[in-house]
Amino acid sequence: MTTKKTVITLITGANKGIGFATAQGLGKRGQHVLIGARNEQRGEEAVKKLRTNGIKADFIQLDVTDKAQIKLAAEKIKSAFGYLSILINNAGIALGNHEPASQMSTDTMRKEFDVNFFGLVDVMQAMIPLLKAGRPAKIINVSSNMGSLGLASDPTSRFYKVNSLGYQASKSAANFTTILLSKELVEDQITVNAVNPGWTATSFGGRSTTSDKPAGMQDVGTGAAQIIKMASLPLDDSQTGTFTENAGTLPW
Ligand SMILES: NC(=O)c1ccc[n+]([C@@H]2O[C@H](COP(=O)([O-])OP(=O)(O)OC[C@H]3O[C@@H](n4cnc5c(N)ncnc54)[C@H](OP(=O)(O)O)[C@@H]3O)[C@@H](O)[C@H]2O)c1
After folding, report:
1. Mean pLDDT, the chain, whole residue set
2. Distance (Å, rounded) from C-alpha 148 to C-alpha 168?
3. How is the chain split into domains, by residue range?
4. Which CATH architecture best describes the domain 8-249?
5. What residues form DSSP beta bridges with 140?
6. From the CB of 112, is ligand 1 less than 6 Å away?
């Protein structure tokens, strides 16, 4: 008799928002979710909520800008489980206030790049050996329609007039990482895909979650839906190098 291997899924920035909703969705589907959070109390509270709902969850301290912490997280996962099935790079920030690109502070942009690009790359590089140990495996990068070069340069798109250079360029760079790693990791049976959650009612960008959501802003379950869909595909599904949202495929 063959026993089915548990799907172990690490989600960064999973203590709230889209990351937490993704953990709930995947946990309910039987995945064992590792809640990456930079703050121990917030991470443990999220784990408690998930476990109350019968979900297998553990906290992993993970500030994606802290290389020593990333290394330690990988070591802990290795000793506790020996492998990873899915890595969801969800942690992200937006600090710019839609200033024109000619005026936006590069200090602000650097902070956005540290989390949205360098953090994502550092976590991927550290987790790839664990994903290889768990293969077939998946990496899902939570990107944004705001990082789409195709939409930003299309005069008919609502993103044509958006100005958020640090956030947009860092998500665009994350998309490039998705393209290159999807090709590099094919032979290791690891797929790499990018997902746009869409405009979602979380505390993202400093929004208050107690205020009414503006027209057109979706709830957090809808924001997590495409990530959950991609992470629920069979582990040996070969779809890789894609950029999708609930409505379909997006231009890079
Ligand atoms: N909401 C939207 O409209 C929208 C649209 C498109 C794309 N996205 C993308 O969706 C992802 C999730 O966003 P969200 O809306 O759920 O935002 P959110 O509610 O603000 O959650 C962001 C998560 O990232 C974590 N985080 C921030 N910096 C981190 C760091 N250095 N290390 C580890 N974790 C860190 C936060 O932790 P703390 O609680 O400790 O701050 C939080 O858990 C982001 O990548 C975002 O770019 C969101």
Report:
1. 96
2. 8
3. 8-249
4. 3-Layer(aba) Sandwich (3.40)
5. 88, 193
6. no
